[in-house]
Amino acid sequence: MKLKNILIVVKDMEKSIAFYRNLFGLEVILDNDGNVIMTEGLVLQDIKYWKQFLNRECIGRNHMSELYFEEADIDAFAKKLNDYPEPIEYVNRLMTHSWGQRVIRFYDPDGNLIEVGTPV
Prior knowledge:
Blueprint: E1 6-10, H1 13-24, E2 28-31, E3 35-38, E4 42-46, H2 47-54, E5 67-70, H3 74-82, E6 90-96, E7 102-107, E8 113-117
Parallel strand pairs: 1-4, 5-8
Antiparallel strand pairs: 2-3, 3-4, 6-7, 7-8
């Protein structure tokens, strides 16, 4: 068995596609009307379909998971994030852990937690 994708729930598909394309360079591989598969194994699921599938409410900013990306030029990424035309809600701005890794944490437009760090 192997893990194929990571699925996150989004409220505004076009806004989320633009966010992941512009900041992370991900591209749409397949658009199945409410379920979009992007490069690197990220799947965006429209919240209205997800609620139907689960028959439950969706809770954003639940802090139970995180998307983790690595970026060698973290200073350039931090600037790119700072210059993004939509407001970014940070958990922490660029910081350095005791073991030397530099990281930045923030939320995507739907409250999914993201961490970007230098390679370890």
